[in-house]
Amino acid sequence: MPYIRAFHRFYGEPGKGMVLIGEVSLVNDDNNDNYFYDVVGRFPDIEEDVDPVHLLVNDYSKYL
To answer: Which of 62, 4, 2 minimizes the C-alpha distance to 37?
Structure first.
């Protein structure tokens, strides 16, 4: 792992409700660009509460 000078840290203010946080970068290079102090997964777990309106390619076998 290269020398790391900065880590990402995202959070919301307690008591201010739900928030959506993330990062936008010019190059999506997870191996050399994105470092987090706490170990996090590539994608968060999502608990779906409604069926999708438009399907993605990976959704067809699940919903049709």
So the answer is: 4
Q: 0.70 cut: is pTM over it?
A: no
Looking at the chain, list the stretches that DSSP marks H as alpha helix, in order from N- to C-terminal side: 60-63
What amino acid occupies position 55? L
pLDDT tens for the chain, 64 residues: list them: 556 666 667 778 899 988 887 777 666 666 666 666 677 666 667 788 888 899 989 888 888 8
User: How far, in Å, CA of 11 to CA of 15, rounded?
Assistant: 12
* Cα radius of gyration (the chain): 16
